[in-house]
Amino acid sequence: MPTCPASTATTLSLLEPAVTAALAVLSVGERLPATGWMGTALVIACLAVLTIPTPTRNSRGRLRNSVDHDSDPPARAARAA
Known about the structure:
The chain is mainly α. It contains three helices and two strands. It has a two-stranded antiparallel ribbon with strand order 1-2.
């Protein structure tokens, strides 16, 4: 059985009420008031913000993304020396 990180599982579980409301509207014909749609949109927007990777700082205080891309590792080693 495959596993996923706790942060991914939490994010997906927070999306469950929005999916439930959308499925109720589509499958059963439930009528959602404006506040329900606004709440659904707010949940989706907040989860979108949570899933955007944030820049981090390396040991020299420079900003970098969560994945460090360096096209020329030997030049990086020369700079560090």
